[in-house]
Each structure stands twice: as C-alpha cells, then as structure tokens.
Amino acid sequence: MIAAFGDGEESGSAGISRLAHDIGGLVMTRGIRIVITAAVCGFLAGGPAACGGSADGGGPVDGGRTAKGPDAELARLRGLLKAEASTLPDGFSARPRDGWSPPFRAADQDCRLLLDAAGGGPARRDGETRVAVTYPGDRLGELAGVSLASYAGEGAELRFAELTEALGRCRVAAVSRATKGTSFKVSDLRLEAVGTAVQARRLHGRLNGYPYEMHLVFALTGHTLVSLVHAGVADVDAERTGQLARSLVGQAAP
Across-strand partners of 201? Predict the structure, then answer.
C-alpha cells in the first residue's frame, strides 16, 4: 500500500489519489488513521521527526532557564500542554508525541529561523524554558506541532519581535541543498479571534515532490510565546488551525 505511494514513478497527485483509494476502506478507526499518517509522514520527510515521532519513543522535549532548570516553570508549561490535550479539535489524538521537527532545512536564514523556532528542540537561549509536543490528526499526513516557551524579563517580547521581522522577509522557503522537489511559497494567513499579538503564515508547495502545506502561528501572551505548526498533505484546513491557536492562547493566557 505505501510502496505504491512512494515508488517514484507516479506523479504527486496520482500518488496521493492512489494512496487515498488504497486506504479508503480502512480509515474506520482512529488507530488505523494514525498508523497511516505516520507512514505517510515518514515517506515524505524521510523519517518520523517531521511527524513528531522519535526512534526511542520519548516524551515531550523541554529545556530550563539554567543547567538545573526552574522546576516550577517547567511544571507550569507541562500542565498547560496537558490541559490543552483535552480541548483539541475533533480528529486529533490526545496522546502526544515528541516535538515537531522541520522536514527540511530552509536555504533562507529568516525562513530557517521560523521553522527552527516552531520546532520542538530544547531551549537554546538564556532565560528560556521550553516544552513541545506533536498531536497527530486524522486527515492525510495531518499533525499539529505545539511549543510553549517562557522567558525572563522582556525576553518573550523581544523573541516575538524577532520572529515578526523574519516573517516579513521569508517569502519562499526552499531546501538549502541542490535537491529538487521541495519548495514552499509563503503567504499571509488570516485567523479570526486569536489575539492581538499573533502572526500567522501559510507555506504551500511541495515536499519531496508531493503537495504539502504548513501553517505557522506565533502568539505572545504574557511572558509565554506560543508556537503552532499545523501541517498535512495537500491542503490544510485554516479553520482547524484557528481552533488550535485559540485553544492554545487561551490556555497560556496569564
């Protein structure tokens, strides 16, 4: 079934259509849908990282403000993610996987900054505490990568300003190596009633030759920066992105 999708001899649309036809009679349960999603993500991105999986099946990725880490702040952020799991839109699994990783390395520095910021890596900056998970969805290749990062002092405002500037300069996100088949055009994404300090973009194009779309959302609430990646094969539902963003911002609000 999956081999037919990835044999390299079919066009992107034909491959997607054939895969959808093959699995059409199977998507009756959430468990089967998640297995299919993992297989599709692994094929497109060359591994489980882009779908939030890991080889060792570990839990959420996090990082503290210092080598020892502020336990109370880390516990607060983890509690927010736990509460978020119960308010996910229909079709998303409440059992999280590891934080999302970009499925390619962008050539442009600004685009790379945005993808890395949305990813589920450990805290990289002084004064930052970070947790991240990925929730699989029930649509083809669908996932929601969620990251919460808190900062000391004015760190959250400065980080949000940095990302806002990068969003204004990132217009085409393409791979950094001479590999055909991966390139995304970046356009504005309008989300209703999410908040005032919110930036969102749509990345639409092809990943390893197949149609793919990612929605990037960054929102500032208090000292917490909320990052969301809603991705999937072909088109991604902006309304579901908005539902995810509103829920996240509401949970993280001080």
Answer: 188, 216
Residues 6+ apart with CB under 8 A from 214: 184, 202, 203, 229, 230, 231, 236
pLDDT in tens, 20-58: 443 333 333 444 344 444 445 555 555 555 555 543 333
Q: Which residue has the tokens 């030759």?
A: 209
Structure tokens at 250: 């509401």
Cβ atoms 132, 242 nearer than 8 A: no
User: How far is it, in rounded angstroms, from Cα 150 to Cα 197?
Assistant: 15
CA distance 91 to 211: 21
pLDDT value for 210 = 93
- The mean predicted confidence, pLDDT, of the chain is 78
Size of the chain, expressed as the number of residues it contains: 254
Residues in contact with 105: Cβ distance below 8 Å, sequence separation at least 6, in sequence order: 112, 175, 176, 177
- Token representation of residue 78: 């983890």
**In this structure, which topology does domain 2-252 adopt according to CATH?**
Protein Transport Mog1p; Chain A (3.40.1000)
Q: What is the pLDDT of residues 46-91, one digit of tens each?
A: 555 555 554 333 344 443 333 344 678 899 999 999 888 888 999 9
Each domain of the chain, given as residue ranges in start order, spans: 2-252
